[in-house]
Amino acid sequence: MEFELWWLLALPITFGLGWLASRLDLRQWRRESELKRDAPLSYFRGLNFLLSEQQDKAIDAFIEAVTADPNTVDLHFALGNLFRRRGEYERAVRVHQNLLARGDLPSAERQRAQIALAQDFFKAGLLDRAESVYTALATSPYQSEALAALLQIHERTKEWPRAIDIAGQLERLGAGSYGRQIAHYWCEVAMQCQQSHDLTGALDALDKAVRVHPQAVRPWQLRAGIAQQQGDAAQALEHLRHIAQIQPDFTALAALDMARLFRETGQAQAGRDWLLAKLQDYPAIDLLDAVLQLEADASERYHLALTYLQTHKSLLAARRVLDQTSTALSPEPARLALAQALDGALKNRQRYRCAACGFEARNYTWHCPACQGWETYPPRRTEELQLLAV
Ligand SMILES: [Zn+2]
């Protein structure tokens, strides 16, 4: 083995590198231990308070910690989030704006502070400010979060064309399927057009709703409304019949309008038979009511209501039987007392209930005012829902 000259050089270089590494480690270690020493005790106290859900004390401790070391970015975030969660939006905004004012903030932390600030504005109801911050973040790593928030803002401000645009972007990003929601936005556009007497615009928006979600019920309901407005009862009826084809369960929602339209178009008998067939397949009190409205014969009406009660033992059905009971069958005072008792028991049980959050509404609604969900209400009244659940 030959001795090579460079071995002589390698030895000191290796030694030098080792020494440098140990120095670096040492410096790192020193910095960390200084941090630990400096990380104000108040920070750990704050964490402890947070864990034991004593937010007031946690905030005091965090403020102390931030004052002692204004460079700790994470502490600012913790403090800002705490303020927001407690509804102290102004203070949360100040904390996040302070962070953003720093020139040395790395870009990732800057975007994190921006999204936090947008959340503060949103929660505080300052939607225009939230919108501009979220819009600035729409091409950042927070893109889907920003777009989802923008969608909520446009829903609240009823800017439906912009909501449609954002929902489309979210769908293209793979954030889920937005077809059903977009169809509702088009329905909202149609209603706005209808209010400003632009029926062509309304019909155009409804075409788009059906195209984006062919199973949507609401466009057909709205088309029927426009046809009625134009005096075309037969066409309106056709639109409502279509609901039975695409989502038969929702026929109940259209049943009373259909009964009226069947009568208007001189088809009371055929309409009664059609609705009765639907009642048998998709029982619902509104369908029974529609059938009863078209049935001319009093004893037949009583029989229909009784049959329904026998198969669906609900208070709603009992109330209908009582309505159809002639005074000959039961003495008037007894009938009246029974009716009052039933009405009392039925109070608050004829509503519709959101399947997502449980919020109840007197009239059927496509958009839950509590949880903002779309089409979260089953087309059945609460009492009937309870029976279905048993
Ligand atoms: Zn809800």
From TrEMBL:
<dbReference type="GO" id="GO:0005506">
    <property type="term" value="F:iron ion binding"/>
</dbReference>
<dbReference type="Pfam" id="PF13432">
    <property type="entry name" value="TPR_16"/>
</dbReference>
<feature type="repeat" description="TPR">
    <location>
        <begin position="39"/>
        <end position="72"/>
    </location>
</feature>
<comment type="similarity">
    <text>Belongs to the LapB family.</text>
</comment>
<keyword id="KW-0479">Metal-binding</keyword>
<feature type="binding site">
    <location>
        <position position="354"/>
    </location>
    <ligand>
        <name>Fe cation</name>
    </ligand>
</feature>
<feature type="binding site">
    <location>
        <position position="368"/>
    </location>
    <ligand>
        <name>Fe cation</name>
    </ligand>
</feature>
<feature type="binding site">
    <location>
        <position position="371"/>
    </location>
    <ligand>
        <name>Fe cation</name>
    </ligand>
</feature>
<dbReference type="Pfam" id="PF18073">
    <property type="entry name" value="Zn_ribbon_LapB"/>
</dbReference>
<dbReference type="GO" id="GO:0008653">
    <property type="term" value="P:lipopolysaccharide metabolic process"/>
</dbReference>
<dbReference type="GO" id="GO:0046890">
    <property type="term" value="P:regulation of lipid biosynthetic process"/>
</dbReference>
<keyword id="KW-0472">Membrane</keyword>
<comment type="function">
    <text>Modulates cellular lipopolysaccharide (LPS) levels by regulating LpxC, which is involved in lipid A biosynthesis. May act by modulating the proteolytic activity of FtsH towards LpxC. May also coordinate assembly of proteins involved in LPS synthesis at the plasma membrane.</text>
</comment>
<keyword id="KW-1133">Transmembrane helix</keyword>
<keyword id="KW-0997">Cell inner membrane</keyword>
<feature type="transmembrane region" description="Helical">
    <location>
        <begin position="6"/>
        <end position="26"/>
    </location>
</feature>
<feature type="binding site">
    <location>
        <position position="357"/>
    </location>
    <ligand>
        <name>Fe cation</name>
    </ligand>
</feature>
<dbReference type="GO" id="GO:0009898">
    <property type="term" value="C:cytoplasmic side of plasma membrane"/>
</dbReference>
<feature type="domain" description="LapB rubredoxin metal binding">
    <location>
        <begin position="352"/>
        <end position="376"/>
    </location>
</feature>
<dbReference type="InterPro" id="IPR011990">
    <property type="entry name" value="TPR-like_helical_dom_sf"/>
</dbReference>
<keyword id="KW-0408">Iron</keyword>
<keyword id="KW-0677">Repeat</keyword>
<keyword id="KW-0802">TPR repeat</keyword>
<dbReference type="InterPro" id="IPR051012">
    <property type="entry name" value="CellSynth/LPSAsmb/PSIAsmb"/>
</dbReference>
<dbReference type="InterPro" id="IPR041166">
    <property type="entry name" value="Rubredoxin_2"/>
</dbReference>
<dbReference type="InterPro" id="IPR030865">
    <property type="entry name" value="LapB"/>
</dbReference>
<dbReference type="InterPro" id="IPR019734">
    <property type="entry name" value="TPR_rpt"/>
</dbReference>
<keyword id="KW-1003">Cell membrane</keyword>
<protein>
    <recommendedName>
        <fullName>Lipopolysaccharide assembly protein B</fullName>
    </recommendedName>
</protein>
<keyword id="KW-0812">Transmembrane</keyword>
<feature type="topological domain" description="Cytoplasmic">
    <location>
        <begin position="24"/>
        <end position="390"/>
    </location>
</feature>
